[in-house]
Amino acid sequence: MAWFGGPRRSVALVGLVGVLLMSGCASDDGASLAPRATTAPGATAVPRGSEPPGTVAPDPLGTTVGPDTSVAAPASLPGPGSQGSPPLTDTTLARAPSPAVTTTTATPPQAGSANALDELNRAEAAFRKITPKAGAAAVGGRVTDGHTNEPVNGAQVWMINSTDSTLEGSTVTTADGRYHFASMVPSHYRVSVQDPVGGRVSVFVPFGPDFRSGQDFSIGPGLTTIDATLYAVADQPVPPYAGTATGRRIAVYGDSLVQQGTTAIRGAVEPLGVASVRGISVQRIDQMLPIAAKEAFAGPTTVVIALGNNDVTQSWPIDQSIAALRAQAALFPGSTCIAVLNVNDHTADAGFNARAHDLNGQLAAAVATIPHGYLVDWEARAAGLLSGGAASSWFTDGVHLTPAGSEQYGQLMASAISTCDPR
């Protein structure tokens, strides 16, 4: 087992607001993140993730949507694990109670220096309907389950201005899965859908894990229909490998830190090899077994596992967390590197820190016995960041990351991959 932590040094915060949730901007490696393609009436835009398994996918397409146009999410999303993966029945899905819903026309919350998904997660706890500013545009659609094709009742739909990441409007779906914003200002929007009732995986339409991988919809006058598909964790496809570098096949999976930082992580690791990156919020180590199995089905050479925060938050028994980690590592017998990140134990919550410290000790011992195991010391990198600048530069709440923090997270993974699996 090897240990990688990186230098304990401060990194200057450059243009945090400019980096924040950029629409139509360059990706971390300088490539265009969302090249625009106008969809003619009757044509179909192919979002990233809908390509046949095993293909190298381009970055998401930004489709311009005109009046009275429909942009329907595909009923299913093929992926490496969607064909031939073994059935898994021992995962537990988080089931949150339905939040109280009130209506307001007050100024909507701003994304500020946080990732948009993190902002939405916080707003979800005290959800309120936000009535958009009146305008000549209207948006509506239907949210369905990607496995059953049944409507999703009570899903939260958020309209986010792509230009300044303002939350412009929010509502919930009805029993038939439908939502509607009757009047909006024509502009560019991204659409986020969350399912606090059913525990399905949140999405930036069509299949983006984070803000920058969601589609930038150009909403003009008239009605635009935007449908969405959500998956339970056990049914969630993993993205096909993307990138142009040769040599490594890199699978990265984890919790909300990976989901919110998907674009930054891809930008850091894709120069080292083609990569599949899939994070899902609110998941413990054991709950990500279905995702691990799907990533394993594609035969990655290099695996990065970034889990444990929710085990700590939920005070999950450490022996069960370690057993789940070992079970996942065993799914990758052909991989030459299985890199496992530990947990930041430098938050403002002393109880969390103590539990994280205990988990980190057991993680180190376990990774030392895993074939090709490699411990990646996120705890040390987080301590280094905090020693060189304000916590708010890197963390939104002590655990979740700002865009600059996500850059550091991805760079640590890339450095570990280069050391653990040199080519």
Q: How many E-type strands?
A: 20
Element pattern in H and E:
EHEEEEHEEEEEEEEEEEHHEHEHHEHEHH
Q: Tell me the structural class.
A: alpha/beta
Number of helices: 10
Major β-sheet annotation: 7 strands, mixed
Rg from Cα: 20 Å
Helix content: 10-25%
List unreliable stretches of 5+ residues. Answer: 1-114
What is the straight-line distance between the termini? 18 Å
> Which descriptor suits the 3D outline?
globular
Residue fraction in strands: 15-25%
Summarize the structure.
The protein is an alpha/beta fold. 23% of the residues lie in helices and 23% in strands. The chain has helices spanning 16-19, 116-125, 256-260, 262-269, 289-297, 309-313, 318-329, 350-367, 378-387, 403-420; strands at 2-4, 36-38, 62-65, 69-71, 102-104, 128-130, 137-145, 156-161, 167-172, 178-184, 187-194, 203-204, 217-219, 222-226, 228-230, 248-254, 273-279, 302-306, 337-341, 373-376.
